[in-house]
From TrEMBL:
It comes from Aureimonas altamirensis DSM 21988. InterPro entries: Flavoprotein-like_sf, FMN_Rdtase-like_dom, NAD(P)H-dep_reductase. Residues 3-146 form the NADPH-dependent FMN reductase-like domain. This is NAD(P)H-dependent FMN reductase. It comes from the Bacteria. Pfam families: FMN_red (PF03358).
Amino acid sequence: MKRVAVFNGSLRKESINRKFAESIARLASGKLEFHFVEIGDLPLYNDDLMADGVPASVARVKAEIEAADAVLFVTPEYNRAYTPAIKNVIDWASRPYGKNSWSAKPSAVIGTTPGATGTAAAQNSLKGLLTVVDTVLMGQPEVYFTYKPELFDAEGSVVDASTRNFLTAWVDRFSAWIERTSERKTQDQAGPAR
């Protein structure tokens, strides 16, 4: 099963984007393994902080990205843009020069908000950055989701049939995208056999 590193751009304890991603993780069970990466402990990007080596929290995040088969960005929309937390993790993991952890990773972007546009502006802005850092971005289907609590039960599972069908179809497409676009490692790249 493919492992997906999930980056939630909201650091709020009650983040609806975190709840939304967890709901999708339930739908993906048996197809994809979602691993939620902690990014709230990253310092604000500053190259000077690497004078004595990569900070421990950054090294941890880079290792989690590199261990994943794909990455998923779940973004709220702040002032028609993605969040500073997402920009920060993208910048850190693309450094130091020549050690870009995002390189060739299959990726996707989703997001939710109570508003009618469902983070469309934030996602479209983020997509440009993800191609710059060399992720292999899935363009379709897009998920601009208007969050309504009645679509989910108390545990966060999707209870609305049309919503479940839509999100399950997205999971299936993302799973297929990962299979199709993952770089196959040669024996030399994979390292010695164990």
